Amino acid sequence: ESIVPGELHDPAMRAASAVPEPGAVTIVVPTFNESANIRELLRRITESVPPRLPCEVVFVDDSTDDTPDVIRDAARDCPYPVTVLHRESPVGGLGGAVVEGIRAATSDWIVVMDGDLQHPPSLVPELVAAGERAPAGLVVASRYIEGGSREGLAGGYRVAVSRGATWLTKTLFPRRLRGISDPMSGFFAIRRSAVTADVLKPLGYKILLEMAVRARPRQVTEVPFVFQDRFAGESKSSAQEGIRFLRHLAGLRTASPAARMVVFGLIGATGFLPNLAALWALTTAGTHYLPAEIIANQFGVAWNFLLIEHLCFRDRRQHRHWWDRAGRFALLANADLVLRIPLIALLVGRFGMDALTATALALVTTFVLRFAGTEALVYLP
Ligand code: GDD
Ligand code: MN
């Protein structure tokens, strides 16, 4: 991707802030067509951040309108250095933009906030102060602790979706999100030494979640805030963003081999549904049950393949064509079936095991082999 750094309001000040000062803060603001909010945002930041707190503002912009020009223009009236990184070919959406901003930040503290004033700039100094006090690596501005609320989340529908998403996320990552009541918040402060941007694989809106799960900052603290109404314009979120969020969750949840194996097994267990359905259809249509078994098994395999592709190995599909992956996957799945019976026979005949133990052992063995085979032969080069 190409990044065009914008002009700095005051290069001398920017140079001065290039050495991280304790307590200095870089405010990172992702923007997508927010021209009507920029002036007010910079005005309110100026009003809120005391002059003694060294501050710079980095906009990471994916706009298709004149937002970058508006930022450069408004920067002239701002006492802090203001940078615009305009991304010509945006990757990762909002989260990708935030990570670019974190990479560009030069201060000890980075505060990430939206550009539409739903996050009150008056809270910026408080977030940093809370982090210094704790001391913490991550300070989350939360709508869900005492003193916080989500006034700006208009409509029962959005509130319900937000609640459901928060619940699902907290359930999927109970350990990593301990102490974070609002993992969906887009307003937070991080100590630069607490995150390595290289471990992040941002995908869409939930960059705090990405950070908490993958970068795992050690000490976390929270500050309540009231989610405001948008100042101007409309939310850039969409149903597509919702799908992206589910993909993001799946990617995070299957990041470790152990977690992938569990998901792999759960998906495998659901394969009996299409398998039985196909068997029923085929035998009802008069097919002999033996060929019907074999054909029905392929329905289970296809179902498993689709789910596994999307829920287990989504970001590891680049090495082969989809038909190559499907073929290898089907081969492994059928080999599993063919291998199991002789293996059980061997365990019973040679090692004197009872049939039940032998079957259980064979099931576990072929499952582990199939998982390892899928990892190594389908999703690795
Ligand atoms: N650079 C960039 N690229 N910025 C983006 C993009 C993008 O693809 N999409 C959105 N933004 C910017 C917007 O311009 C705005 O400044 C900020 O990100 C938030 O976008 P909104 O569209 O206003 O988000 P929202 O209000 O629906 O959601 C916010 O609140 C949620 C909590 O309810 C975000 O902060 C979410 O992360 C948060 O979960
Ligand atoms: Mn918003």
From TrEMBL:
Keyword Transferase carried by entry: yes
Main location: membrane
Transmembrane segments: 262-282, 288-308, 329-349, 355-380
Domain Glycosyltransferase 2-like: 26-195
GO biological process: dolichol-linked oligosaccharide biosynthetic process; GPI anchor biosynthetic process; polysaccharide biosynthetic process; protein O-linked glycosylation via mannose
Keywords of this entry: Glycosyltransferase, Membrane, Transferase, Transmembrane, Transmembrane helix
MF annotations from Gene Ontology: dolichyl-phosphate beta-D-mannosyltransferase activity
Family: Belongs to the glycosyltransferase 2 family.
Name of the protein in question: Dolichol monophosphate mannose synthase
Organism listed in the record: Streptomyces aurantiacus
Lineage: Bacteria, Bacillati, Actinomycetota, Actinomycetes, Kitasatosporales
